[in-house]
Amino acid sequence: MRYLRLLAVFARTELQLAAEYRANLVLDLCEEVIIVISSLGAVLILFTHTGVINGWTLAQMIVLLGVYYIIQGANSVLFETSFERFMEHVRLGTLDFIVIKPANSQFLVSARHVQVAQVGQIVLGVAMIGVGIAQIGEGVGVVQGLAFGVTLACGLGLVYCLLLVLSTLAFWFVRVENLLAIFWSFIDAGRFPVDVYPGWLRVTLSTVVPIGIAVTVPAQAIAGRLDAVGLVTMVAGTGLVWWFAGWFWKQGLRSYTGASA
Question: Apex CA 249: angle with CA 194 and CA 183, to 5°?
């Protein structure tokens, strides 16, 4: 509860800052709406020429696109700006001001700068999932819903862990913005199921940059295409990656030498 209260304080502070430039805030929200609608339009155009794409129906693709924007939106709201500021603190040697605070340093660098304007992606993503589920119909039951919730949480965790590991490299290499730029490029590939890509890219999107399974597996769960083995593997893999990311962060923090060193 303490960290939820901290998160609420961060969000309120950032919202106050954003409200100083109301026109810019409105334009950011409009931009998100245009991007999401454009992506949905592209999918609809594809399905005017075919009824199924590698086993994925239109309703299932809409759900997948909704999952993508939930994960992308959560990443933009909580982590993107926060990690960018974190790397700047490492470069300037001012991370001391965060480390000495009486709270978990990993939490502070991960979610300090909440970008409220990006919440629009999450809202639109939820709406798209609702539309997709309505089209899928009676095939979605309680089991599929629970599996969807679990795998969506795992997908969010996988993307966060990857961002944390890449950002932690700044402790040793200082400037790792190029690595994050590569990550942002790959994350766009999550708009489509991982199994429609060539073999090498499919492996990359499932291991090195796990945005593929982070988006595809929840969509498979709601569509009833995920078996128990896949669900257990997703949960176990996420737990392992979560542990490694936390351990890696602690190693990086130990090697940090800031302005007070």
Answer: 30
